[in-house]
Protein backbone atom coordinates (compact mmCIF):
# COMPACT_ATOMS: atom_id res chain seq x y z
CA UNK A 1 0.00 0.00 0.00
CA UNK A 2 2.95 2.36 0.51
CA UNK A 3 3.38 2.84 -3.25
CA UNK A 4 -0.35 3.50 -3.62
CA UNK A 5 -0.12 6.24 -1.01
CA UNK A 6 2.71 7.93 -2.93
CA UNK A 7 0.88 7.88 -6.26
CA UNK A 8 -2.49 8.87 -4.78
CA UNK A 9 -0.87 11.79 -2.98
CA UNK A 10 0.48 13.09 -6.28
CA UNK A 11 -2.95 12.69 -7.90
CA UNK A 12 -4.78 14.50 -5.09
CA UNK A 13 -2.35 17.40 -5.22
CA UNK A 14 -2.73 17.50 -9.01
CA UNK A 15 -6.54 17.50 -8.84
CA UNK A 16 -6.53 20.50 -6.53
CA UNK A 17 -4.33 22.50 -8.87
CA UNK A 18 -5.61 21.63 -12.30
CA UNK A 19 -9.08 20.07 -12.20
CA UNK A 20 -11.45 21.94 -14.51
CA UNK A 21 -15.23 21.50 -14.42
CA UNK A 22 -16.25 21.14 -18.07
CA UNK A 23 -19.49 19.42 -19.22
CA UNK A 24 -18.99 15.69 -19.84
CA UNK A 25 -20.38 16.13 -23.35
CA UNK A 26 -17.64 18.50 -24.46
CA UNK A 27 -18.24 18.80 -28.20
CA UNK A 28 -21.72 20.46 -28.05
CA UNK A 29 -20.41 22.71 -25.28
CA UNK A 30 -17.45 23.88 -27.39
CA UNK A 31 -19.62 24.22 -30.52
CA UNK A 32 -22.11 26.42 -28.66
CA UNK A 33 -19.33 28.72 -27.45
CA UNK A 34 -17.89 28.97 -30.97
CA UNK A 35 -21.37 29.70 -32.31
CA UNK A 36 -21.69 32.63 -29.88
CA UNK A 37 -18.37 34.03 -31.07
CA UNK A 38 -19.22 33.67 -34.74
CA UNK A 39 -22.91 34.57 -34.86
CA UNK A 40 -23.68 36.88 -31.93
CA UNK A 41 -23.29 40.63 -32.05
CA UNK A 42 -23.41 41.30 -28.28
CA UNK A 43 -19.99 42.04 -26.84
CA UNK A 44 -20.92 40.69 -23.39
CA UNK A 45 -21.83 37.27 -24.79
CA UNK A 46 -18.68 37.16 -26.94
CA UNK A 47 -16.47 38.11 -23.98
CA UNK A 48 -18.01 35.39 -21.77
CA UNK A 49 -17.65 32.77 -24.51
CA UNK A 50 -13.98 33.74 -25.06
CA UNK A 51 -13.21 33.50 -21.33
CA UNK A 52 -14.82 30.04 -21.07
CA UNK A 53 -12.88 28.79 -24.12
CA UNK A 54 -9.66 30.14 -22.61
CA UNK A 55 -10.43 28.24 -19.40
CA UNK A 56 -11.13 25.02 -21.34
CA UNK A 57 -7.84 25.10 -23.26
CA UNK A 58 -5.57 26.32 -20.44
CA UNK A 59 -4.14 22.85 -19.75
CA UNK A 60 -4.53 21.48 -23.28
CA UNK A 61 -3.16 24.24 -25.55
CA UNK A 62 -1.61 27.22 -23.74
CA UNK A 63 -1.25 29.35 -26.88
CA UNK A 64 -4.90 28.86 -27.84
CA UNK A 65 -5.95 29.58 -24.24
CA UNK A 66 -4.00 32.84 -24.25
CA UNK A 67 -5.47 33.77 -27.64
CA UNK A 68 -9.07 33.40 -26.39
CA UNK A 69 -8.24 35.27 -23.17
CA UNK A 70 -6.96 38.30 -25.09
CA UNK A 71 -9.84 38.03 -27.55
CA UNK A 72 -12.30 38.31 -24.67
CA UNK A 73 -10.45 41.39 -23.42
CA UNK A 74 -11.24 43.16 -26.71
CA UNK A 75 -15.00 42.86 -26.06
CA UNK A 76 -14.88 44.43 -22.56
CA UNK A 77 -15.30 48.02 -23.85
CA UNK A 78 -15.36 49.67 -20.44
CA UNK A 79 -17.67 47.08 -18.82
CA UNK A 80 -16.31 46.90 -15.24
CA UNK A 81 -17.93 43.53 -14.48
CA UNK A 82 -16.38 41.96 -17.58
CA UNK A 83 -13.07 43.55 -16.60
CA UNK A 84 -13.29 41.83 -13.19
CA UNK A 85 -14.08 38.52 -14.91
CA UNK A 86 -11.06 39.02 -17.19
CA UNK A 87 -8.85 39.26 -14.05
CA UNK A 88 -10.40 36.02 -12.76
CA UNK A 89 -9.78 34.06 -15.99
CA UNK A 90 -6.30 35.55 -16.29
CA UNK A 91 -5.59 34.10 -12.83
CA UNK A 92 -7.00 30.75 -14.03
CA UNK A 93 -4.59 30.82 -16.98
CA UNK A 94 -1.57 31.38 -14.69
CA UNK A 95 -2.63 28.92 -11.93
CA UNK A 96 -0.47 26.06 -13.22
CA UNK A 97 2.22 28.33 -14.68
CA UNK A 98 3.02 31.00 -12.08
CA UNK A 99 1.26 30.70 -8.73
CA UNK A 100 2.54 34.13 -7.66
CA UNK A 101 0.92 35.85 -10.66
CA UNK A 102 -2.23 33.79 -10.25
CA UNK A 103 -2.59 34.75 -6.57
CA UNK A 104 -2.18 38.44 -7.43
CA UNK A 105 -4.84 38.32 -10.18
CA UNK A 106 -7.27 36.37 -7.94
CA UNK A 107 -7.02 39.08 -5.27
CA UNK A 108 -7.55 41.79 -7.88
CA UNK A 109 -10.61 39.94 -9.25
CA UNK A 110 -12.08 39.49 -5.74
CA UNK A 111 -11.67 43.19 -5.01
CA UNK A 112 -13.45 44.23 -8.22
CA UNK A 113 -16.16 41.54 -8.09
CA UNK A 114 -17.09 42.51 -4.52
CA UNK A 115 -18.47 45.79 -5.90
CA UNK A 116 -21.31 43.85 -7.57
CA UNK A 117 -24.13 42.34 -5.51
CA UNK A 118 -25.53 39.49 -7.61
CA UNK A 119 -25.36 35.69 -7.80
CA UNK A 120 -22.81 35.48 -10.60
CA UNK A 121 -20.46 37.83 -8.76
CA UNK A 122 -20.78 35.91 -5.46
CA UNK A 123 -20.13 32.53 -7.07
CA UNK A 124 -17.14 33.86 -9.03
CA UNK A 125 -15.74 35.27 -5.78
CA UNK A 126 -16.24 31.86 -4.12
CA UNK A 127 -14.28 30.22 -6.96
CA UNK A 128 -11.59 32.93 -6.83
CA UNK A 129 -11.10 32.48 -3.06
CA UNK A 130 -10.83 28.70 -3.49
CA UNK A 131 -8.31 29.01 -6.34
CA UNK A 132 -6.36 31.65 -4.38
CA UNK A 133 -6.04 29.14 -1.54
CA UNK A 134 -4.79 26.53 -4.03
CA UNK A 135 -2.22 29.00 -5.42
CA UNK A 136 -0.95 29.70 -1.88
CA UNK A 137 -1.05 26.06 -0.73
CA UNK A 138 2.66 25.34 -1.24
CA UNK A 139 3.58 28.50 0.64
CA UNK A 140 0.97 28.52 3.43
CA UNK A 141 0.08 24.82 3.73
CA UNK A 142 -3.17 22.87 3.75
CA UNK A 143 -4.57 24.50 6.95
CA UNK A 144 -4.58 27.86 5.13
CA UNK A 145 -6.40 26.32 2.14
CA UNK A 146 -9.03 24.68 4.38
CA UNK A 147 -9.54 27.93 6.29
CA UNK A 148 -9.95 29.88 3.04
CA UNK A 149 -12.57 27.46 1.72
CA UNK A 150 -14.53 27.34 5.00
CA UNK A 151 -14.38 31.07 5.82
CA UNK A 152 -14.38 32.68 2.36
CA UNK A 153 -15.63 30.39 -0.42
CA UNK A 154 -18.41 28.35 1.24
CA UNK A 155 -20.20 31.34 2.92
CA UNK A 156 -20.49 33.01 -0.50
CA UNK A 157 -21.74 29.84 -2.22
CA UNK A 158 -24.15 29.04 0.65
CA UNK A 159 -26.17 32.16 -0.21
CA UNK A 160 -27.50 30.04 -3.06
CA UNK A 161 -28.26 26.67 -1.41
CA UNK A 162 -28.16 23.80 -3.82
CA UNK A 163 -25.75 25.45 -6.28
CA UNK A 164 -23.31 23.18 -8.08
CA UNK A 165 -20.52 25.50 -6.92
CA UNK A 166 -21.29 24.55 -3.31
CA UNK A 167 -21.23 20.86 -4.23
CA UNK A 168 -17.88 21.33 -5.93
CA UNK A 169 -16.40 23.08 -2.87
CA UNK A 170 -17.57 20.28 -0.57
CA UNK A 171 -15.87 17.78 -2.88
CA UNK A 172 -12.60 19.70 -2.86
CA UNK A 173 -12.64 19.86 0.94
CA UNK A 174 -13.08 16.09 0.91
CA UNK A 175 -10.05 15.75 -1.40
CA UNK A 176 -7.92 17.72 1.07
CA UNK A 177 -9.03 15.58 4.02
CA UNK A 178 -8.30 12.39 2.05
CA UNK A 179 -4.82 13.70 1.24
CA UNK A 180 -4.24 14.29 4.96
CA UNK A 181 -5.58 10.80 5.90
CA UNK A 182 -8.73 12.16 7.62
CA UNK A 183 -11.00 9.72 5.82
CA UNK A 184 -14.12 10.17 7.98
CA UNK A 185 -14.15 13.94 7.47
CA UNK A 186 -13.61 13.36 3.75
CA UNK A 187 -16.61 11.04 3.68
CA UNK A 188 -18.78 13.64 5.47
CA UNK A 189 -18.06 16.37 2.92
CA UNK A 190 -18.41 13.96 -0.02
CA UNK A 191 -21.88 13.05 1.30
CA UNK A 192 -22.79 16.76 1.53
CA UNK A 193 -21.75 17.14 -2.10
CA UNK A 194 -23.81 14.09 -3.11
CA UNK A 195 -26.93 15.51 -1.42
CA UNK A 196 -26.76 18.54 -3.73
CA UNK A 197 -25.40 17.05 -6.95
CA UNK A 198 -27.37 13.79 -7.19
CA UNK A 199 -30.62 15.64 -6.55
CA UNK A 200 -30.12 18.66 -8.84
CA UNK A 201 -27.25 17.90 -11.24
CA UNK A 202 -27.43 14.17 -11.92
CA UNK A 203 -25.41 14.30 -15.17
CA UNK A 204 -22.86 16.93 -14.21
CA UNK A 205 -19.10 16.86 -14.26
CA UNK A 206 -19.14 17.88 -10.60
CA UNK A 207 -21.01 14.68 -9.71
CA UNK A 208 -18.65 12.61 -11.89
CA UNK A 209 -15.59 13.91 -10.04
CA UNK A 210 -17.35 13.48 -6.69
CA UNK A 211 -17.88 9.78 -7.49
CA UNK A 212 -14.20 9.46 -8.43
CA UNK A 213 -13.04 11.27 -5.29
CA UNK A 214 -15.19 8.99 -3.09
CA UNK A 215 -13.76 5.92 -4.86
CA UNK A 216 -10.23 7.25 -4.33
CA UNK A 217 -10.96 7.85 -0.64
CA UNK A 218 -12.02 4.22 -0.25
CA UNK A 219 -8.99 3.02 -2.23
CA UNK A 220 -6.79 4.95 0.16
CA UNK A 221 -8.37 2.90 2.98
CA UNK A 222 -8.04 -0.39 1.03
CA UNK A 223 -11.86 -0.65 0.90
CA UNK A 224 -12.05 -1.99 -2.63
CA UNK A 225 -15.71 -3.11 -2.60
CA UNK A 226 -16.92 0.33 -1.51
CA UNK A 227 -14.69 2.00 -4.09
CA UNK A 228 -16.11 -0.22 -6.86
CA UNK A 229 -19.69 1.01 -6.23
CA UNK A 230 -18.82 4.64 -6.88
CA UNK A 231 -16.40 3.82 -9.69
CA UNK A 232 -19.29 2.08 -11.47
CA UNK A 233 -21.45 5.18 -11.00
CA UNK A 234 -18.72 7.35 -12.53
CA UNK A 235 -18.46 4.90 -15.45
CA UNK A 236 -22.20 5.11 -16.06
CA UNK A 237 -21.94 8.91 -16.36
CA UNK A 238 -18.94 8.97 -18.69
CA UNK A 239 -19.62 5.92 -20.91
CA UNK A 240 -21.96 7.84 -23.33
CA UNK A 241 -19.09 10.25 -24.08
CA UNK A 242 -16.04 8.27 -25.33
CA UNK A 243 -14.55 11.45 -26.81
CA UNK A 244 -14.51 13.39 -23.51
CA UNK A 245 -11.16 14.43 -22.07
CA UNK A 246 -12.22 13.41 -18.54
CA UNK A 247 -12.09 9.72 -19.53
CA UNK A 248 -8.43 9.83 -18.49
CA UNK A 249 -9.46 10.63 -14.90
CA UNK A 250 -11.90 7.72 -14.90
CA UNK A 251 -9.21 5.28 -16.02
CA UNK A 252 -6.87 6.64 -13.39
CA UNK A 253 -9.46 5.95 -10.70
CA UNK A 254 -9.94 2.45 -12.14
CA UNK A 255 -6.17 1.93 -12.01
CA UNK A 256 -6.12 2.79 -8.31
CA UNK A 257 -8.98 0.35 -7.73
CA UNK A 258 -7.09 -2.54 -9.38
CA UNK A 259 -3.98 -1.66 -7.37
CA UNK A 260 -6.07 -1.70 -4.18
CA UNK A 261 -7.41 -5.16 -5.05
CA UNK A 262 -3.86 -6.24 -5.97
CA UNK A 263 -5.01 -7.10 -9.49
CA UNK A 264 -1.79 -5.87 -11.02
CA UNK A 265 -2.03 -7.69 -14.34
CA UNK A 266 -5.55 -6.34 -14.94
CA UNK A 267 -4.39 -2.80 -14.17
CA UNK A 268 -1.86 -2.69 -17.04
CA UNK A 269 -4.38 -2.54 -19.97
CA UNK A 270 -6.41 0.05 -18.02
CA UNK A 271 -3.28 2.19 -17.73
CA UNK A 272 -2.73 1.91 -21.49
CA UNK A 273 -6.28 3.19 -22.11
CA UNK A 274 -5.66 6.11 -19.76
CA UNK A 275 -2.40 6.94 -21.53
CA UNK A 276 -4.29 6.97 -24.86
CA UNK A 277 -6.61 9.72 -23.59
CA UNK A 278 -3.83 11.75 -21.96
CA UNK A 279 -1.91 11.82 -25.25
CA UNK A 280 -5.05 12.74 -27.20
CA UNK A 281 -5.74 15.76 -24.96
CA UNK A 282 -2.12 16.74 -24.11
CA UNK A 283 -2.55 15.83 -20.43
CA UNK A 284 1.19 15.37 -19.91
CA UNK A 285 1.19 15.43 -16.11
CA UNK A 286 -1.55 12.80 -15.84
CA UNK A 287 0.21 10.68 -18.49
CA UNK A 288 3.38 10.56 -16.43
CA UNK A 289 1.34 9.57 -13.37
CA UNK A 290 0.01 6.62 -15.35
CA UNK A 291 3.58 5.68 -16.22
CA UNK A 292 4.56 5.90 -12.55
CA UNK A 293 1.75 3.46 -11.72
CA UNK A 294 2.97 1.21 -14.51
CA UNK A 295 6.45 1.22 -12.99
CA UNK A 296 5.03 0.31 -9.58
CA UNK A 297 3.01 -2.60 -11.00
CA UNK A 298 5.89 -3.95 -13.11
CA UNK A 299 8.10 -3.87 -10.04
CA UNK A 300 5.54 -5.85 -8.03
CA UNK A 301 5.36 -8.37 -10.89
CA UNK A 302 9.18 -8.64 -10.65
CA UNK A 303 9.56 -7.39 -14.24
CA UNK A 304 12.43 -5.28 -13.01
CA UNK A 305 14.04 -4.32 -16.32
CA UNK A 306 10.73 -3.04 -17.72
CA UNK A 307 9.99 -1.20 -14.48
CA UNK A 308 13.41 0.43 -14.51
CA UNK A 309 12.99 1.53 -18.15
CA UNK A 310 9.56 3.08 -17.43
CA UNK A 311 10.75 5.09 -14.43
CA UNK A 312 13.86 6.31 -16.28
CA UNK A 313 11.53 7.48 -19.10
CA UNK A 314 9.42 9.40 -16.53
CA UNK A 315 12.58 11.11 -15.31
CA UNK A 316 13.62 11.98 -18.87
CA UNK A 317 10.17 13.37 -19.83
CA UNK A 318 10.35 15.79 -16.83
CA UNK A 319 6.62 16.62 -16.42
CA UNK A 320 6.65 15.02 -12.99
CA UNK A 321 10.41 15.15 -12.40
CA UNK A 322 10.53 18.94 -12.75
CA UNK A 323 9.16 18.98 -9.20
CA UNK A 324 12.23 18.34 -7.03
CA UNK A 325 10.26 16.42 -4.40
CA UNK A 326 8.93 14.05 -7.08
CA UNK A 327 12.43 13.66 -8.50
CA UNK A 328 13.74 12.77 -5.04
CA UNK A 329 11.06 10.05 -4.80
CA UNK A 330 12.08 8.65 -8.20
CA UNK A 331 15.77 8.55 -7.19
CA UNK A 332 14.87 6.64 -4.02
CA UNK A 333 12.71 4.19 -6.00
CA UNK A 334 15.49 3.55 -8.53
CA UNK A 335 17.98 2.97 -5.73
CA UNK A 336 15.68 0.44 -4.05
CA UNK A 337 14.89 -1.22 -7.39
CA UNK A 338 18.58 -1.72 -8.21
CA UNK A 339 19.15 -3.19 -4.77
CA UNK A 340 16.43 -5.75 -5.45
CA UNK A 341 17.97 -6.46 -8.87
CA UNK A 342 21.36 -7.10 -7.25
CA UNK A 343 23.03 -3.99 -8.71
CA UNK A 344 24.66 -2.44 -5.62
CA UNK A 345 26.91 -0.09 -7.61
CA UNK A 346 24.02 1.42 -9.58
CA UNK A 347 21.94 1.49 -6.40
CA UNK A 348 24.69 3.53 -4.75
CA UNK A 349 24.71 6.00 -7.68
CA UNK A 350 20.95 6.64 -7.31
CA UNK A 351 21.26 6.78 -3.52
CA UNK A 352 23.95 9.46 -3.87
CA UNK A 353 21.72 11.47 -6.26
CA UNK A 354 18.89 11.14 -3.76
CA UNK A 355 21.11 12.30 -0.89
CA UNK A 356 22.50 15.27 -2.84
CA UNK A 357 19.01 16.42 -3.88
CA UNK A 358 17.71 15.83 -0.35
CA UNK A 359 20.52 18.04 0.99
CA UNK A 360 19.69 20.88 -1.42
CA UNK A 361 15.95 20.67 -0.63
CA UNK A 362 16.63 20.87 3.11
CA UNK A 363 19.13 23.71 3.13
CA UNK A 364 19.62 25.03 6.68
CA UNK A 365 17.33 22.29 8.02
CA UNK A 366 19.40 21.67 11.18
CA UNK A 367 20.11 24.12 13.99
CA UNK A 368 23.00 26.44 13.31
CA UNK A 369 25.78 25.15 15.58
CA UNK A 370 28.48 27.36 14.08
CA UNK A 371 28.45 31.15 14.16
CA UNK A 372 25.43 31.48 16.49
CA UNK A 373 24.29 35.03 16.23
CA UNK A 374 23.43 37.58 18.78
CA UNK A 375 23.37 40.69 16.58
CA UNK A 376 21.19 43.02 18.65
CA UNK A 377 22.74 46.20 17.47
CA UNK A 378 21.79 49.44 19.32
CA UNK A 379 21.43 52.81 17.63
CA UNK A 380 22.51 54.48 20.89
CA UNK A 381 26.16 54.49 19.81
CA UNK A 382 25.29 56.35 16.65
CA UNK A 383 23.21 58.84 18.61
CA UNK A 384 26.06 59.29 21.08
CA UNK A 385 28.48 60.08 18.26
CA UNK A 386 26.02 62.60 16.79
CA UNK A 387 25.64 64.23 20.21
CA UNK A 388 29.43 64.42 20.61
CA UNK A 389 29.84 66.03 17.19
CA UNK A 390 27.14 68.58 18.02
CA UNK A 391 28.86 69.40 21.32
CA UNK A 392 32.19 69.87 19.55
CA UNK A 393 30.53 72.09 16.98
CA UNK A 394 28.89 74.21 19.66
CA UNK A 395 32.19 74.49 21.51
CA UNK A 396 33.98 75.64 18.37
CA UNK A 397 31.25 78.19 17.67
CA UNK A 398 31.63 79.53 21.24
CA UNK A 399 35.39 79.85 20.83
CA UNK A 400 34.97 81.71 17.54
CA UNK A 401 32.49 84.12 19.14
CA UNK A 402 34.86 84.79 22.03
CA UNK A 403 37.72 85.39 19.67
CA UNK A 404 35.62 87.76 17.60
CA UNK A 405 34.66 89.74 20.74
CA UNK A 406 38.26 89.87 21.90
CA UNK A 407 39.52 91.00 18.50
CA UNK A 408 37.19 94.02 18.59
CA UNK A 409 38.92 95.14 21.78
CA UNK A 410 42.48 94.64 20.59
CA UNK A 411 44.52 97.19 18.87
CA UNK A 412 45.60 96.95 15.27
CA UNK A 413 49.07 95.95 16.48
CA UNK A 414 47.82 92.82 18.19
CA UNK A 415 45.66 91.93 15.17
CA UNK A 416 48.67 90.76 13.19
CA UNK A 417 49.97 88.64 16.08
CA UNK A 418 46.60 86.98 16.64
CA UNK A 419 46.23 86.31 12.92
CA UNK A 420 49.63 84.69 12.91
CA UNK A 421 48.75 82.55 15.94
CA UNK A 422 45.49 81.45 14.32
CA UNK A 423 47.36 80.53 11.16
CA UNK A 424 49.90 78.48 13.12
CA UNK A 425 47.11 76.82 15.13
CA UNK A 426 45.30 75.81 11.92
CA UNK A 427 48.50 74.32 10.47
CA UNK A 428 49.13 72.43 13.71
CA UNK A 429 45.58 71.00 13.79
CA UNK A 430 45.78 70.09 10.14
CA UNK A 431 49.11 68.29 10.56
CA UNK A 432 47.82 66.54 13.67
CA UNK A 433 44.68 65.41 11.83
CA UNK A 434 46.73 64.11 8.89
CA UNK A 435 48.98 62.20 11.28
CA UNK A 436 46.00 60.69 13.05
CA UNK A 437 44.46 59.70 9.72
CA UNK A 438 47.67 57.98 8.62
CA UNK A 439 47.89 56.11 11.91
CA UNK A 440 44.24 55.07 11.63
CA UNK A 441 44.75 53.94 8.03
CA UNK A 442 47.72 51.80 9.05
CA UNK A 443 45.76 50.28 11.91
CA UNK A 444 42.78 49.68 9.65
CA UNK A 445 44.92 47.95 7.02
CA UNK A 446 46.46 45.73 9.71
CA UNK A 447 43.02 44.89 11.12
CA UNK A 448 41.63 44.15 7.66
CA UNK A 449 44.60 41.90 6.86
CA UNK A 450 44.07 40.03 10.12
CA UNK A 451 40.32 39.81 9.50
CA UNK A 452 40.91 38.56 5.97
CA UNK A 453 43.27 35.84 7.18
CA UNK A 454 40.86 34.76 9.92
CA UNK A 455 37.78 34.68 7.66
CA UNK A 456 39.55 32.92 4.78
CA UNK A 457 41.07 30.37 7.14
CA UNK A 458 37.71 29.81 8.79
CA UNK A 459 35.92 29.22 5.45
CA UNK A 460 38.72 26.93 4.17
CA UNK A 461 38.51 24.83 7.31
CA UNK A 462 34.72 24.67 7.04
CA UNK A 463 34.98 23.58 3.42
CA UNK A 464 37.60 20.93 4.23
CA UNK A 465 35.57 19.49 7.10
CA UNK A 466 32.34 19.55 5.08
CA UNK A 467 34.03 17.82 2.12
CA UNK A 468 35.61 15.16 4.32
CA UNK A 469 32.31 14.49 6.08
CA UNK A 470 30.10 14.46 2.96
CA UNK A 471 32.36 12.77 0.39
CA UNK A 472 34.45 10.63 2.70
CA UNK A 473 32.64 9.42 5.77
CA UNK A 474 29.18 10.04 4.26
CA UNK A 475 29.94 8.00 1.15
CA UNK A 476 31.45 5.17 3.20
CA UNK A 477 28.43 4.99 5.52
CA UNK A 478 26.02 5.05 2.56
CA UNK A 479 27.97 2.19 0.99
CA UNK A 480 27.86 0.22 4.23
CA UNK A 481 24.10 0.79 4.47
CA UNK A 482 23.49 -0.44 0.92
CA UNK A 483 25.73 -3.49 1.41
CA UNK A 484 23.86 -4.34 4.62
CA UNK A 485 20.53 -3.91 2.77
CA UNK A 486 21.66 -6.20 -0.07
CA UNK A 487 23.01 -8.81 2.35
CA UNK A 488 19.86 -8.74 4.50
CA UNK A 489 17.60 -9.52 1.51
CA UNK A 490 19.30 -12.91 1.08
CA UNK A 491 20.14 -13.79 4.70
CA UNK A 492 17.53 -12.28 7.03
CA UNK A 493 13.82 -12.51 7.59
CA UNK A 494 11.90 -9.21 7.86
CA UNK A 495 9.69 -10.39 10.71
CA UNK A 496 12.32 -12.29 12.72
CA UNK A 497 15.13 -9.77 12.44
CA UNK A 498 13.30 -6.53 13.22
CA UNK A 499 16.10 -5.37 15.53
CA UNK A 500 18.59 -5.53 12.65
CA UNK A 501 16.31 -3.43 10.42
CA UNK A 502 15.79 -0.94 13.25
CA UNK A 503 19.58 -0.57 13.58
CA UNK A 504 19.81 -0.27 9.77
CA UNK A 505 17.29 2.57 9.94
CA UNK A 506 19.40 4.28 12.62
CA UNK A 507 22.41 4.02 10.30
CA UNK A 508 20.38 5.64 7.50
CA UNK A 509 19.33 8.48 9.84
CA UNK A 510 22.97 8.93 10.90
CA UNK A 511 24.05 9.31 7.26
CA UNK A 512 21.36 11.96 6.72
CA UNK A 513 22.36 13.83 9.89
CA UNK A 514 26.05 13.75 8.90
CA UNK A 515 25.20 15.24 5.50
CA UNK A 516 23.07 17.92 7.14
CA UNK A 517 26.03 18.94 9.33
CA UNK A 518 28.35 18.96 6.31
CA UNK A 519 25.94 21.10 4.30
CA UNK A 520 25.60 23.53 7.21
CA UNK A 521 29.38 23.96 7.36
CA UNK A 522 29.49 24.87 3.68
CA UNK A 523 26.11 25.62 1.94
CA UNK A 524 26.00 23.33 -1.07
CA UNK A 525 23.53 25.47 -3.00
CA UNK A 526 26.02 28.39 -2.84
CA UNK A 527 28.79 26.30 -4.39
CA UNK A 528 26.55 24.70 -7.03
CA UNK A 529 24.07 27.43 -7.98
CA UNK A 530 25.49 30.76 -6.81
CA UNK A 531 24.67 33.50 -4.30
CA UNK A 532 21.11 34.37 -5.43
CA UNK A 533 19.89 30.75 -5.24
CA UNK A 534 21.61 30.19 -1.87
CA UNK A 535 20.01 33.32 -0.37
CA UNK A 536 16.61 32.32 -1.75
CA UNK A 537 17.00 28.83 -0.19
CA UNK A 538 18.01 30.45 3.13
CA UNK A 539 14.82 32.56 3.15
CA UNK A 540 12.69 29.55 2.15
CA UNK A 541 14.09 27.62 5.13
CA UNK A 542 13.02 30.29 7.61
CA UNK A 543 9.59 30.76 5.98
CA UNK A 544 6.80 29.25 8.01
CA UNK A 545 3.16 29.89 8.86
CA UNK A 546 3.80 32.71 11.37
CA UNK A 547 6.72 34.31 9.52
CA UNK A 548 6.54 35.82 6.03
CA UNK A 549 9.87 36.56 4.36
CA UNK A 550 9.95 38.50 1.09
CA UNK A 551 13.33 38.12 -0.67
CA UNK A 552 14.14 40.38 -3.62
CA UNK A 553 17.29 39.97 -5.72
CA UNK A 554 18.22 42.70 -8.19
CA UNK A 555 21.02 42.42 -10.79
CA UNK A 556 23.22 40.04 -8.75
CA UNK A 557 26.06 38.88 -10.99
CA UNK A 558 26.87 35.16 -11.05
CA UNK A 559 30.63 35.60 -11.52
CA UNK A 560 31.40 37.12 -8.10
CA UNK A 561 34.49 35.62 -6.42
CA UNK A 562 33.55 32.78 -4.07
CA UNK A 563 35.04 34.45 -0.96
CA UNK A 564 32.88 37.55 -1.55
CA UNK A 565 29.77 35.39 -2.09
CA UNK A 566 30.50 33.53 1.17
CA UNK A 567 30.90 36.75 3.17
CA UNK A 568 27.66 38.24 1.77
CA UNK A 569 25.84 34.95 2.52
CA UNK A 570 27.11 34.95 6.14
CA UNK A 571 26.08 38.61 6.61
CA UNK A 572 22.50 37.94 5.41
CA UNK A 573 22.40 34.72 7.46
CA UNK A 574 23.23 36.60 10.68
CA UNK A 575 20.81 39.47 9.95
CA UNK A 576 17.94 37.08 9.14
CA UNK A 577 18.50 34.87 12.19
CA UNK A 578 18.61 37.96 14.42
CA UNK A 579 15.31 39.31 13.07
CA UNK A 580 13.57 35.97 13.70
CA UNK A 581 15.15 34.83 16.97
CA UNK A 582 15.62 38.10 18.83
CA UNK A 583 13.28 40.68 17.29
CA UNK A 584 10.30 38.25 17.13
CA UNK A 585 9.41 39.61 13.68
CA UNK A 586 6.51 38.18 11.63
CA UNK A 587 7.16 40.12 8.39
CA UNK A 588 10.66 40.50 6.97
CA UNK A 589 11.78 42.16 3.74
CA UNK A 590 15.26 41.35 2.41
CA UNK A 591 16.61 43.09 -0.68
CA UNK A 592 20.01 42.37 -2.21
CA UNK A 593 21.14 44.39 -5.22
CA UNK A 594 24.32 45.03 -7.16
CA UNK A 595 25.44 48.08 -9.09
CA UNK A 596 28.87 47.61 -10.59
CA UNK A 597 31.32 47.16 -7.73
CA UNK A 598 28.79 48.19 -5.06
CA UNK A 599 26.59 45.65 -3.32
CA UNK A 600 23.62 46.73 -1.18
CA UNK A 601 21.80 44.76 1.52
CA UNK A 602 18.57 46.05 3.09
CA UNK A 603 16.57 44.19 5.74
CA UNK A 604 13.37 45.52 7.31
CA UNK A 605 11.22 43.82 9.95
CA UNK A 606 8.22 44.58 12.15
CA UNK A 607 9.85 43.21 15.31
CA UNK A 608 10.30 44.76 18.74
CA UNK A 609 13.45 46.72 17.82
CA UNK A 610 16.71 47.03 19.69
CA UNK A 611 17.13 47.65 23.41
CA UNK A 612 19.02 50.85 24.13
CA UNK A 613 22.67 50.48 25.26
CA UNK A 614 22.62 46.77 24.30
CA UNK A 615 26.03 47.09 22.69
CA UNK A 616 27.56 48.36 25.93
CA UNK A 617 26.02 45.56 28.04
CA UNK A 618 27.11 42.57 25.99
CA UNK A 619 30.21 41.21 24.28
CA UNK A 620 28.52 39.75 21.24
CA UNK A 621 30.70 37.54 19.07
CA UNK A 622 27.94 37.61 16.44
CA UNK A 623 28.04 41.44 16.36
CA UNK A 624 31.83 41.43 16.03
CA UNK A 625 31.66 38.85 13.22
CA UNK A 626 29.06 40.95 11.39
CA UNK A 627 31.12 44.15 11.75
CA UNK A 628 34.32 42.32 10.72
CA UNK A 629 32.69 41.00 7.54
CA UNK A 630 31.34 44.45 6.64
CA UNK A 631 34.77 46.04 7.31
CA UNK A 632 36.45 43.27 5.34
CA UNK A 633 34.41 44.26 2.28
CA UNK A 634 35.18 47.97 2.96
CA UNK A 635 31.54 48.60 3.69
CA UNK A 636 29.31 50.65 5.94
CA UNK A 637 26.22 49.84 7.98
CA UNK A 638 23.30 52.03 9.04
CA UNK A 639 20.66 50.94 11.57
CA UNK A 640 17.31 52.57 12.37
CA UNK A 641 15.27 50.90 15.12
CA UNK A 642 12.27 51.60 17.35
CA UNK A 643 9.44 49.59 18.94
CA UNK A 644 7.71 49.28 15.54
CA UNK A 645 10.58 47.50 13.81
CA UNK A 646 14.13 47.72 12.53
CA UNK A 647 15.69 48.75 9.20
CA UNK A 648 19.34 47.93 8.44
CA UNK A 649 21.13 49.22 5.33
CA UNK A 650 24.55 47.84 4.39
CA UNK A 651 26.71 49.03 1.51
CA UNK A 652 29.66 46.84 0.47
CA UNK A 653 32.55 47.38 -1.91
CA UNK A 654 33.05 44.12 -3.86
CA UNK A 655 35.93 45.40 -6.00
CA UNK A 656 38.89 43.02 -6.33
CA UNK A 657 41.30 43.04 -3.41
Automatic annotation (TrEMBL):
Regions annotated as coiled coil: 363-399
Residue ranges of domain Histidine kinase in the record: 464-656
The protein's Enzyme Commission number: 2.7.13.3
Keyword terms: ATP-binding, Coiled coil, Kinase, Membrane, Nucleotide-binding, Phosphoprotein, Signal, Transferase, Transmembrane, Transmembrane helix, Two-component regulatory system
Entry GO CC: membrane
InterPro entries: HATPase_C_sf, HATPase_dom, His_kinase_dom, Sensor_HK_TwoCompSys, Sig_transdc_His_kin_sub3_dim/P, TPR-like_helical_dom_sf
Catalytic activity: ATP + protein L-histidine = ADP + protein N-phospho-L-histidine
Top enzyme category: transferase
Protein name: histidine kinase
